[in-house]
Amino acid sequence: MSRLLIFDANGNPLGERLLDRERIRIGRRLDNDLVLDDLSVSNEHALIITIRNDSFIQDLNSMNGVRVNGRLIRHHHLQADDEVTIGSFTLRYLHEPWTEPASVWLPPETRAQKEAAVRAATAGEGQTLFHLEVEGGEASEVLPDTEILGSPTASLAPTPPSTVQGTGHLRLLAGPGAGRETALTRAVTTLGKPGIQTAVISRRGSAYYLSFVEGDTYPQVNGMEIGATPHLLNDHDILDVAGTRLEFFYR
């Protein structure tokens, strides 16, 4: 499990914080997941989102900003030994690959697929993160200002031979933005509403997989819950995520 080492302005170690949940909020206020008690830190300063092997840091419109390795950022895909400056504090990111807990039983073939995916997560080419949030029936695109320098989030199933040519797309089927389309040209697309239900679509070659991230229920494809394992998407599948209905199709 990846973690942050915390240092004060003089380089003295103050402790560490495990990235043991999907969202870690950082700030001066006491209800943050990581509290940095100094006036140079905003009440809600930054957010770290972790999805399996990938952690992303986002500036929450803080007064003094967030720097990674000396560079001012808004969004950044964290890499091993990155140094994040928040106010007078330095946070060093230590990357440790995600692994399935040993206590979770899986069929041998499924466990082998997941273990292979974790190993593959360090071998991919650089990708750019694309984050799609669906709120109130409208889709809004949020493009970070940095490129992922490591590998994309690995899909946790083998890629079958493709029988469909083209790029995957999503079309919003209901609400004020109905009919809007988005091309899935990036490594990872995040869908849903944090705290309610979120899922990711991972691209591997010409194949796309929908994977559950968080929520009380699983996303549905064609009216059926996908469960905890990645689901291979087919042309014209209907997705229901966080109360929003979308169509997946190739073009």
Topology:
Blueprint: E1 3-7, E2 13-18, E3 23-27, E4 34-35, E5 46-51, E6 54-59, E7 66-68, E8 71-73, E9 75-77, E10 83-86, E11 89-94, H1 108-120, E12 131-135, E13 138-142, E14 168-172, E15 181-183, E16 188-193, E17 197-204, E18 207-215, E19 220-221, E20 224-225, E21 231-232, E22 237-241, E23 244-250
Parallel strand pairs: 3-4
Antiparallel strand pairs: 1-2, 1-11, 3-5, 5-6, 6-9, 7-8, 7-10, 10-11, 12-13, 14-15, 14-23, 16-17, 17-18, 18-21, 19-20, 19-22, 22-23
Question: What do these coordinates show?
Answer:
Residues 102-106 and 116-162 have low confidence and may be disordered. This protein has one helix at 108-120, and strands spanning 3-7, 13-18, 23-27, 34-35, 46-51, 54-59, 66-68, 71-73, 75-77, 83-86, 89-94, 131-135, 138-142, 168-172, 181-183, 188-193, 197-204, 207-215, 220-221, 224-225, 231-232, 237-241, 244-250. It is mainly beta and 251 residues long. The strands form five sheets. A six-stranded antiparallel beta sheet has the order 2-1-11-10-7-8, with no helix packed on it. It has a six-stranded antiparallel beta sheet with strand order 15-14-23-22-19-20, with no helix packed on it.
